[in-house]
Design a protein that fits this description.
The structure holds two protein chains of two kinds. By secondary structure, chain A is mainly β. Chain A contains no helices and eleven strands. Chain A has strands spanning about 5, 10-15, 20-25, 30-40, 45-50, 55-60, 60-65, 70-75, 85-90, 100, 105-110. In chain A, a hairpin with a 4-residue loop joins strand 7 and strand 8 (about 70-75). Chain A is globular. By secondary structure, chain B is an all-beta fold. Chain B is globular. Classes of the chains: A mainly beta, B mainly beta. The interface of A and B includes residues 49 and 101 of A.
Chain lengths: ~110, ~110
């Protein structure tokens, strides 16, 4: 079993839809949870960062962490065609200098 | 504030050859990490450098080596290239003790 599992998709939705992206993990030492967005031929860009369990909201994006279930989610409201990208979840046990463990990424396609 | 710059953007090498990839960190960042991203996969941690010393290493063989320079720029060297080394190589810089890795756009290495 991989440390971080993420459905690769693709996930196709119409513009304006609410998108739900998810990851599960097995390492209970993970405490820092991130979502990155990666456009084609680009490096990952940090979208959301959450420490431990709970919710965090930033504009149209909401990140949720449930450590008891080892499950994290990213919700995108009012999805736009410009949101079409691959979304990677990443986790680490220690802030800052620790390594990141990534999921495979979910490809999201938002059609106009 | 400049981001992370990687060079070259694309590279084609022959099996058995050696390659050097370069990375300039974001201004103010003192830690550099390298990741390998195979097609359709999430980035995999190769190693990290802090204060010019290797500070952690993933499950990669010794033919993957690196350097960090006093200006915090970095090199990734790969000897005896294999076909499976074909991937996007990502450099990420950060400030030790803080989250928020900034990734470069990567170097696409093709081994033929």
């Amino acid at each position: 079993q991989k440390e971080v599992e993420q459905d690769p998709g693709p996930l196709s939705v119409p513009e304006g839809a609410i998108v739900s992206l998810n990851c599960t993990y097995s390492n209970s030492a993970f405490q820092y949870f991130m979502w990155y967005r990666q456009y084609s031929r680009k490096g990952p860009e940090l979208l959301m960062y959450t420490y431990s369990s709970g919710n965090k909201e930033d504009g149209r994006f909401t990140a949720q962490v449930d450590k008891s279930s080892k499950y994290i989610s990213l919700f995108i409201r009012d999805s736009q065609p410009s949101d079409s990208a691959t979304y990677l979840c990443a986790m680490s046990a220690v802030s800052g200098y620790s390594t990141l463990t990534f999921g495979k990424g979910t490809m999201l396609l938002v059609s106009p | 504030e400049t981001g992370v710059t990687q060079s070259p953007t694309h590279l084609i090498k022959t099996r058995g050859q050696q390659v050097t990839l370069r990375c300039s960190s974001q201004s103010g960042h003192n830690t550099v990490s390298w990741y390998q991203q195979a097609l359709g996969q999430g980035p995999q941690f190769i190693f990290q450098y802090y204060r010019e010393e290797e500070n952690g290493r993933g499950n990669f063989p010794p033919r993957f080596s690196g350097l960090q320079f006093p200006n915090y720029s970095s090199e990734l060297n790969v000897n005896a290239l294999e076909l499976d080394d074909s991937a996007l190589y990502l450099c990420a810089s950060s400030l030790k003790g803080y989250y928020g890795y900034t990734f470069g756009s990567g170097t696409r290495l093709t081994v033929v």
